[in-house]
Specification:
mainly alpha; 6 helices; single chain; 170 residues
Length: 170
């Protein structure tokens, strides 16, 4: 079933909202783009977005949507953080998200970032009693966070390009 041209344009506009969500984490960017693809594919009964393409886009979406979780951990680990420090960072990141959103008014994302970095640094200092090593581990977490944003952006662009290619080729 072929959809009218306005449906394709509406889907692209919605996907660009997802790109904004990758850059400014207000909307879950990659996840939002994947939902737009899903709605479009269902609406056109998987005629142009076939199951293989949808599966590829789903795999890309999962990688992009979870990049924050695993890339920050990999970055902290590369910076020398222990598994215990990663756990403390995760827990304080969760607390930071709640405190930032509910009490401080800064939002969940900044609260989560500050909480996670503080958790890694505090746990590493407690473990090694060396501020340089503790900040190195926290810096690794921050580097992973920045890199995850780049990965999410590239995956979002790739998902949109694959979507456009599939729809335009019919």
């Amino acid at each position: 079933m072929e959809l009218p041209e306005w449906a394709f344009v509406a889907a692209l506009i919605a996907m660009f909202v997802g790109i904004i969500g990758v850059i400014l984490p207000v909307v879950p960017g990659v996840g939002f783009i994947w939902i737009v693809v899903l709605i479009y594919a269902i609406a056109e009964k998987f005629a142009t977005i076939d199951l293989i393409t949808f599966t590829v886009l789903t795999i890309l979406g999962v990688i992009g949507f979870t990049a924050d979780l695993w890339m920050t951990q990999v970055g902290a680990k590369a910076g020398g953080a222990s598994p215990f420090s990663l756990l403390v960072g995760f827990l304080l990141g969760t607390v930071g998200a709640l405190v930032g959103a509910i009490f401080l008014g800064v939002g969940a994302i900044p609260g989560a970032i500050v909480g996670a970095i503080a958790g890694v640094v505090i746990a590493e200092y407690h473990r090694r009693e060396d501020w340089n090593e503790a900040f190195k581990a926290g810096g690794g977490w921050a580097a992973g966070c920045l890199l995850s944003g780049g990965v999410q952006f590239l995956i979002a662009i790739l998902m949109i390009l694959i979507f456009v290619w599939q729809v335009l080729r019919g």
